[in-house]
Every structure is written in structure tokens, then in C-alpha cells.
Amino acid sequence: MGLRRIVNKRMGAFIIAASALSTVAAAAAPDVVPLTFINNLPFVSITVGAASTRLMIDTGGQLGISMPEATVAKAGSVTMLDHRTKFHDLNGKVFEVQDFVAERVVVGSTHFAKVNGRIHTEWGGAPEGPEAELTRARQAGAIGLDAFGDRPLMFDYGHRTLTIFAPGDAPQAGHSGWQQLQLDYGKEGPYVTLVVGGKPLKFVLDTGASVNVVNPDALGSASGSALCAGAPASKQDCDPRLLPDVRDAGGRPLGALKAERARLGGAPFDGLLGAAFFAEHRVVFDVAAHRLLIAPANAGADQAP
């Protein structure tokens, strides 16, 4: 074999290997997907088989995908199951819906072979007034964390994006401004333990909630109304929604949090972190690794995890 043939053969092998590495790197690149917002709640465009639709992202509860029967019929890639799912809202009303498996689901440029789902049923909202547009938009259905499997997700409301990472390509918290919290996941959805006034409280991270909420029965003396007792009404730090000293389970300070007071009807958690929390932070869900990463929404681009 001549020298030229040896060089050409080796160069060819190098080009093939480099091309393969480039393809792998491209496939592993995070998928940055645009979000749209209605009443501060996030919606994402997806494709299921032959159907394209826009769904609200709802992390509260265990949900893959929910779609109305008309979208399911148009998709042509959904298999209905014999099983039905029961769930209830915070008011205790029970819903029962048909389960299905959706194939050929695409969000951004990320493809999902199969996603478990259920027929969508609309609950809550109002057909008129400030909630009307949101109520109509929610009729299209919702997509939850279960749809994304082991893929870490980053919500960046400031840039109106959802970043989907490859499984196992978990972001790291080594950059300034980022904090890591223990993330657990149950029937109520993803939740963290926050220490408020020395009391550990369970908060569900719910992108479908328009405000932060805390059960006043769980607060005791840590309530904002107690802090404001006898103070001038104009004093800024006496907002009755204020939780002034919030820490993670390890005692590290997270700053103040504002939360509406609402009794949660016997729900197995103490509060919700909703749109207000996500607007103030960039949030990374890494369910597979039981990690939640948060950083101030105004953190610089060089501080990405």
C-alpha cells in the first residue's frame, strides 16, 4: 500500500470520526424552546402525530399530556387504554377521564417515542372577564413533567424559553448565583421543603398556579399579619403576604417570599410556588437526580448552570 493511500485512508477515517462526534455533540445540545404566556402562565407548541397544538405547561401533579378528544382523533398516533384516571381539584371535586398513550410527540426539536396521557377535561377558570383568554387557551390541554422523562428542564420566564436537556446531561450548580435544593416528586407533583420561621413546609412547584400560595394554618407565628401587627400601614415590609425569612432544608437563606394565604382543603402539602416564583427565578428541574436549581431571573448569561 503506497504512502498516499495510507494517508488518504487515515484522513478518511478521521473525517468520519470527526463527523460522528459532531453529530453526537449536535444531538446532545440543549433544545431551547420558545414559550408564550397568557396571564403569566406558560404555554408551549407541540406536535402529536398529525396534530399541532399549544398546551399549557402544568407541573402541578403527575401529568404526561392531556388533550381533548378532537385533538386525539386528529393526531392519528394515540392509542386509547381501558384504564381511567381519577383526580380532584383543590376544592375536592373529583374528575374521571380516559387514559391513552400518545406516539410521535415533538416539543421544539425534541422527539418523544411515547407519552402517557389522558383525555383533557377543563376545570376552573371563567368564560368572561380577565380570565376568559386563559380559560379558552386551557381548553387545548396541558403537558406536565412526566412527558419529558429523565430530561432536565430549565424555565426562564425572563427570556420566555424552556430549555430541554438530554437525559443525564444534568446542569451543574457550580456557577455564582445558583442554589441547589432537594427535589422530590410524588402524586402532588414536584416539591421542595422550605423552612419558614423555623417551620419546615412542603411547597409544590406549580407552573399552572398564577400566584404563590401558603396555608395559613401551617404558618403559625411566621405569618405576615403577625409581623405587621402595630406597624404603620404604609411600611413596605409589612405586606401581609410576606414571608421574610425563607430557607432551604439545609438552613441556607433564600430570601423573602410573598405568598397569598389560602386553605388548601386537606391537600398533602403546605403551599404552592407559582408564576410569581418562576418570574423571579430561573428554575431547573432535574427530577431524575432529585435536584432543583434556582438563580435570580436577572443573573447574567455567563452564570448559566
Write a concise synopsis of the structure shown.
The protein has 305 residues and is of the alpha+beta class. It has helices at 3-28, 69-75, 132-138, 216-219, 224-227, 275-280; strands at 31-34, 36-38, 41-48, 51-57, 65-67, 78-88, 94-107, 110-119, 142-143, 153-156, 161-164, 179-182, 184-186, 189-196, 199-205, 213-214, 242-248, 253-258, 260-261, 271-273, 281-286, 291-296. The protein contains 6 helices and 22 strands.
Write up what this structure looks like:
It is a single chain. The chain has about 300 residues and is an alpha+beta fold. The strands form 3 sheets. Strands 13, 14, 15, 16, 17, 18, 19 and 20 form an 8-stranded mixed β-sheet that branches. A 6-stranded antiparallel β-sheet has the order 1-11-10-21-22-12. The protein has a 6-stranded mixed beta barrel with strand order 3-4-9-5-8-7. Strand 17 and strand 18 form a beta hairpin. The longest helix has 26 residues. The chain is globular and about 55 Å long. About 30% of the residues are buried. The N terminus is likely disordered.
Topology:
Elements: H1 3-28, E1 31-34, E2 36-38, E3 41-48, E4 51-57, E5 65-67, H2 69-75, E6 78-88, E7 94-107, E8 110-119, H3 132-138, E9 142-143, E10 153-156, E11 161-164, E12 179-182, E13 184-186, E14 189-196, E15 199-205, E16 213-214, H4 216-219, H5 224-227, E17 242-248, E18 253-258, E19 260-261, E20 271-273, H6 275-280, E21 281-286, E22 291-296
Parallel strand pairs: 4-9, 5-8, 15-20, 16-19
Antiparallel strand pairs: 1-11, 2-3, 3-4, 3-7, 5-9, 6-7, 7-8, 10-11, 10-21, 12-22, 13-14, 14-15, 14-17, 16-20, 17-18, 21-22
